[in-house]
Amino acid sequence: MTTVEARPGPTRGIRPKVVARTGLQAGLAVNAAIVAYFFVQAGFASNALIVLGRLTGLYAALLMAFQLFLMARLPWLDRRIGMDRLAGWHRWNGFLLLWLLLGHAVFIVFGYARPTGRDPVDQTVELAKTVDGVLRAVVALLLILVVGAVSARFARRRLAYETWHFIHLYTYLAVALAFTHQVAAGTTFTSSDLATAYWYTLWGSALGAVAAGRVLLPLWRNRRHKLVVTAVVPESDNVVSIHLTGRDLDRLPARAGQFFLWRFLTRDRWWQANPYSLSAAPDGRTLRLTAKAAGAGSAALRHVKPGTRVFAEGPYGAFTTLHRTRPDTVLIAGGVGVTPIRALLEELPGHTVVLYRVGSDKDAVLHQELHELALARSAELHVITGPIAPDPLAPHALAGLVPDIADRDVYVCGPPGMTTAVLRSLSELGVPKPQIHFERFSLAG
């Protein structure tokens, strides 16, 4: 099977991931300096608590705009960093944002309460009644506290993805309320025409990035490509492959190793968007996903009918050959994590070794395809079965299967526990970090 674009060689010079990460960090640092300049330019209040309140509020506004950029699903960033890492940065940035907002509220309330002798509750009520925009800020803070609470790990594990996502959408309302509060009550915002232009540009760019990446681009691509299901093929009792076609798929910038958020437009499924990796390299004519029944949504896939229209968001992910650094490769898969690995095997040049970890032979999804593809590409395929202990992917075991592993790129995709263990083994074997490629496919798998 051929791919649409020529396969790139190993990365030379500065890695794409480093370029993107450095660009984000530099952009944030430059904007932090600009915010500090406008803060000083606006002048200081006589009360130190109010000064701290204004400063924490400004940097909270900056981080809120940065939050929007991180999860705008901009293709250039996503292909170089990966949605999993962007989501991780979004999470930690969100907790820092929450603490800054709390600090802003506490410093401002206590700063204004000090000369009047009011208690904090009375002072908050007084500010909400007399200062335009404060009530909106209180509502925004409460919304962000709720979103932060449901995003904590102990809560996130107990919520269905659709429930968590619906609650998370209130962040956009909080952003709108926070911005109008800044316009109405922010002294730095109105301290000069230049400061006002800066803040409008920052917020406009952030919201524009979200609109472009999460709304306009998916709508445009789906209108152009008009994806439709052509076949539903059971691979085993609990695994199914969905084949799709559409228009101008040679112009869809999808790569082996990436995933989409798939929405099957039937009466009972149109509102569910499920992330699944491509299980075959895009050939410009068809796409294929393969999913294991891990819940009600994925279990229902085998009942999708040919002819069903599909709305797909993506492609997403940095788990591609763009990040290769060496001519030869090791692909390590676990369970249904083999789907992007199988697609990568189709696209990778050079000598490739595939290590596929499953509980038993019957759990080896797409085994026959892997076997045939390995033969066609002169690759080595090792299906590793058996109990967890002793670990068949421990350092000595990996070194025995691939003696030159430290001189290869290594792609890892599987359950979180297996991925963590393999990454630890690779570190002990001295495989350089730039040669190790993985994404946490807790959603995409």
How would you describe this structure to a colleague?
There is one protein chain. With about 450 residues, the chain is of the alpha/beta class. The chain has 15 helices and eleven strands. The strands form three sheets. Strands 9-8-7-10-11 form a five-stranded parallel β-sheet, sandwiched between helices. A three-stranded antiparallel β-sheet has the order 1-2-5, with no helix packed on it. The protein has a three-stranded antiparallel β-sheet with strand order 4-3-6. Helix 15 links the parallel strand 10 and strand 11. The chain is elongated. The N terminus is likely disordered.
What would a concise description of this structure say?
This protein has 445 residues and is of the alpha/beta class. 51% of the residues lie in helices and 14% in strands.
How many strands in all?
11
Q: Which strand-content bin applies to the residues?
A: 5-15%
Class by helix and strand content?
Answer: alpha/beta
Quick one: biggest sheet?
Answer: 5 strands, parallel
Helical residue percent?
40-55%
Based on Cα principal axes, name the global outline: elongated
The H/E string reads: HHHHHHHHHHEEEEEHEEHEHEHEHE
Q: Number of helix segments?
A: 15
